[in-house]
Amino acid sequence: MNSIQRKVIQFVFIFVGLIYIGRLFVLQILDSRYKIEAEINAVEKIIEYPNRGLIYDRKGKLLVFNTPVFDITVILREFKLTDTLEFCNKFGITPDSLKGIVADIRKDRGYSRNKPMPLFKQLSTEDFGKIQNFLSDYHGLYVQARTVRSYPHKSLANALGYIGEISRTTLEKQTNNYYRQGDYIGLSGLEQYYEEVLRGQRGVRFVMKDVKGVQKGRYRAGEYDTTSVAGENLVSTIDLELQQYGELLMQGKIGSIVAIEPSTGEILAFVSAPSYDPALLSGRLYSKNYGRILMDPLKPLFNRPLMAQYPPGSIFKLAQALTGLQLGVITERTQFSCDKSLVNCHSHPSPTDLRSSIQWSCNPYYFLTFKKIINQDLSTNKYKDTEMGFDMWRPHILSMGFGSKIDVDLPNVKAGNIPSNQYYDKIYGDMRWKFSTIYSLGIGQGEISIIPIQMANFAAMIANRGYYFSPHLIRNMGKDKRILEKYTVRHQTTIHPKYFKPIVDGMEQVVLAGTAAWTRSKDSVIICGKTGTAENPHGDDHSVFIAFAPKDNPKIAIAVFVENAGFGAMTAAPIANLLIHKYLKRKPNQYMEDYIINKDLTDKYGSYKK
Amino acid sequence: MRNEDKISSNIDWITVGFYSLFVLLGWFNIFAVVYDPEAEATQSMFDFSMNAGKQLIWICTAVILIIMILVIDFKFYSTFAYVIYGLVILLLIVTTLIATEVNGSRSWLDIGFTRIQPAEFAKFATALALAKYMSPVNVKFERFETKLVSAFILALPCIFILLQNETGSTLVFSAFILVLYREGLSGVILLIGVMSALLLVLTLIYDKFIIVYVIGGLAFIVVLYLIQAATNSTKKRLLWRNIFVVAIVAGICSGVVFGVDFFVNKVLQEHQRNRVMVLIDQELDPKGVGYHVRQSKIAIGSGEFWGKGFLEGTQTKFDFVPEQSTDFIFCTIGEEHGWFGSTLLIGLYVAFMLRLVFLAERQKDKFARIYGYSVACLIFIHFMVNIGMTIGVFPVIGIPLPFFSYGGSSLWSFTILLFIFLKLDAHRGEVLSSL
Prior knowledge:
Chain A is α+β, with helices and mostly antiparallel strands.
């Protein structure tokens, strides 16, 4: 009875059930949107930034450390402002600047309503403390703790480098997909070179949160979490005390100082003058300060020891002498008279042998030595002969670390230029150039250019009598105190060690009784050095000096380059002298120190710019 | 003693099994809702300060109720049907008068140790009264008088529940339309009901005049067809009658459209109208009225095929879904047990309801049969509306999922509702012998 009605009712029950099962199929399986929404709802991704590694000097003094700062981010979807004025009062901003911040957020290329966007960046612990209690009054505000770099001194800025937000191009170019927008990355100096050692490994934590945003434990028991690994500390080769002394001596001057421990290649001092306070490029005022430093006509950001390319001047005579000895075209007893008709020279005893040619920096001696190297009468064709001699000369020069990039642990190193056969062919044409075209190379002028760190490396090589370790700024890394493999490799030059004796003797005489004799005082250290006075088209000659000390078992090799400061002996030599004394724990000459510190060339540089 | 033996052998254990299963699953899921992975102490389903523990108390008291219902003589229910009905109506009136307002409704009555919702108990009382009224053999539903009295029995509790501002509970009484259909109500009325619902939805989406024009257009096409058919037929007399019928139907439909428009814009209160409008377009107000539905769908939708696992749901556990222990308990199933679990649960409910229809149909006594259908249909309405609102096909109406949702009143009322029927069913043979 009534079977139709019964069937209709049964049908309705089953029909509704099936409709719901179908609807659930769409909701739960076909539509993946809800899974994502659920995660946005209840899962918060917390990035844990590891502490960046610290940097110490060779004696354990802190060079770089971290200070905590707090970024406040906002998820605009969750952020509701009922009383703008109250919010502004609590957070210490004006309504206008809030408008500006929000407008900036909207303009951001990575802008999303659902993603945390920066609201206040890099608040100090103190500033953060003021607003901390208000944060919970608002939905959608999040705190991201991170650190900025801090410096207990104002030194070494160009070597240390700085960190900053990763650029869009770097972000797009990265291959291992580590960095995200807003991440900080080493942008120059050691911060850039040792980025991967210093940064550590970022960790990610997924936590669940309830509807009020209260954290409710790890998502999926931490299945997707990665722990952050702190960055490793670096121990620098720099002697902060020596560095600061060098910077003091270079005040009011443009130039470089590079001091190296010859037995290891460790850089003891690395002065680029003028410099800037590294703290300026850390923290909130980065962009503002960066712009200001960039506008400085003296270019403090220009890392001169690595990037400034200069004609070396007379210091290059040492390289010529070594090459001449190695090629056998001169001996330590070879004498030339100072024939000023060949090339200009200053007054000094004549003739000179190899030692005294160094002592007096005799130009004609090196004109003739270079001529002997270039024209060895290997061919009857003058041009061919020049080419052959030149090709024999160049490898020796290159083996001393010139003409190619020094493998220092800093980015943006220049190579300098040791012209090649092809280089001259290009300028003058094949078989169109001969000794008279290139003779100025003999005294370190002409097309040749080298950079300060190469000069220091050259001094260290002579100190070692024929080999060098690539100069570097980091002594060891991490807890295991490991060192980069390449800095344990001894680079042997093509010059036999026996040829160094007359050279070193000559350098000793430079300071004892030669061009730099005035820097010597009664109880001073025996310094082996060589002055250089580099002619240049920009103004007064550059003052150059390379040296090492003591003569036997040298502890320090140094190159000082001061732009437009005249004779090498006038500025560069006393600076080197003072630094060597400082490093060897001897009292620097007070008179000389005052003289150098008070030597201010700023006005002169200013006049050149006009 | 003889009586008890009979109960254990005659009672429908399959239905008891369904009941136990729903109650237990409900309890587990209520625990899953309140479970807090961050809590320091190990949490127990037996902690009586939490919903899960409280639900256990309700379950235990429900068992006492069951024993009482089964012990009482089966003839009691038909004999005292009107008395029970009257008492409940009285209780509703009292509630309407003295209840304090909770969340906009005045339906809760404080009885000292706990609060009860008399509207819940109106369901089984009304079912008893309706069954009692229609059970005599001489009462024919075809008679107008019968229809009027039935309507009165149904309308009386509805009025007071409406006065308590419990629109959702009132809607539940539409279950009796299905019962009446089984007992002889014309299918046309059912169809009109469905059509009205369809028109209601259309009215909410489109402008009322557009719908009326469409109705008119359709009526015109039908009339043309009728004229065409009549020219080939000899019964031309019928043509005028048919056109008249079409015009009446079109007129009623248009009337419904205007009525609905008036009802929605003038009669419904703001929050009710919003709930209806949000069903049509959920994105209207994602933070306000749409929030419930949206969060509910997120919770269920994120369950995928197998679900996140027991106690692993984030949306329900962390309070994203409001009212999750009570009205939105299905979200927990959807999130933690996925499509698989949801389908299983829906299947169980459908099987359960079909079992109730089967039991109702096997009654020899009309009283028991009508009552049985009432039970099946009341459960069906709750099932349809409750799950429907969690998956966004029904407006958010606060009614519980039978046996599953947290809450004493609802568990008790469904238990009473069901077990009276099982008691009647257990004695179905005796009715026959007594005749």
